[in-house]
Amino acid sequence: MFVLTLSKILIFTKIYDLISINTSENKKVYFASDQHLGAPTSEASFPREQKFVAWLNEVKKDAEAIFILGDLFDFWFEYKTVVPKGFVRVLGKLAEIKDSGIPIYFFVGNHDLWMHDYFEKELNIPVYHSPQEFKINDKLFLIGHGDGLGPGDKGYKRMKKVFTFPLFQWMFRWLHPDLGVRLGQYMSVKNKLISGDEDAKFLGENNEWLVQYCKRKLETKHYNYFVFGHRHLPLEIQLKENSVYLNTGDWIQYYTYAVFENNKLVLKEYNS
User: Fold this and answer.
1) For residue 86, what pLDDT is reported?
2) Strand 256-261 to strand 264-269: parallel, antiparallel, or no bridges (unpaired)?
């Protein structure tokens, strides 16, 4: 049990080197988050899954890289030999894109934080559990999902410590998958600390926790772009000269994403 616990701790403390991406001519880098596939039911989210797969099918034509910034699934838990049923189309499309040679980077969110090595082993897609630095052309990015960052949100932060505690995950894994997944799906939809019902309200720049987090990071290091999800709002806020916080929105109400093209990051809406 000690080895199991230590391995889980290392997952959440893994340090990655700075990754540099240089875009080729006419190539772009895409960012999207908060698809929440499976919510409120698999049947209800199926049209959204189809729409997201259609978007992936379009952007693969000129993508230098694709970033999925968390909460792709409304609930995800990896047993040793079992993962939640469904999502075949989106998983297949991600596998196809990765196999074609386009890098994909996945950041876990507060709904799929129990993701470990399934994506890495089955899809060869790296999984990140905390914000990471990337250099795209000559711009420095700090990228992540965004949950639990900055001041405030203390209730969720306490809950996240419990949910990411290795002993808790070990105990949950002993539930039969039919029971564990059903319980997890129910909690994901019903628990306001997890479900993010308050996330779709703009709080004002001075009260946005992620904005405060970004401003604090700028006190010690310059970033050209901070790119996060989690807020379910498409936001673009100028923090300083040559420094912008951008939130990618969601695929529930807004169907927005960010694209880095012509050496600039912009928000767009998918209308197809």
Assistant:
1) 80
2) antiparallel
Amino acid at position 52, single letter: F
Beta bridge mates, 142:
133, 226
Cβ contact 133:227 at 8 Å = no
Query: In one letter, which amino acid is 207?
Result: N
7 within 8 A of 167, measured Cβ to Cβ: no
- Read off the pLDDT of each residue in 130-153 and give the average, rounded to a whole number: 90
For residue 240, pLDDT beyond 70: yes
Rounded CA-CA distance 107/143 in Å is 9
Tell me the three-class secondary structure of the chain, residue by residue. Answer: CHHHHHHHHHHHHCCCCCEEECCCCCCEEEEECCCCECCCCHHHHHHHHHHHHHHHHHHCCCEEEEEECCCCECCCECCCCCCCCCCHHHHHHHHHHHHCCCCEEEECCCCCCECCCHHHHHHCCCEECCCEEEEECCEEEEECCCCCCCCCCHHHHHHHHHHCCHHHHHHHHCCCHHHHHHHHHHHHHHCHHHHCCCCCCCCCHHHCHHHHHHHHHHCCCCCCEEEECCCCCEEEEEEECCEEEEEECCCCCCCEEEEEECCEEEEEECCC
pLDDT band at 150 (very low <50, low <70, confident <90, very high): confident
Give the model confidence (pLDDT) of 79-113 as tens digits.
Answer: 777 777 789 999 999 999 999 999 999 999 888 87
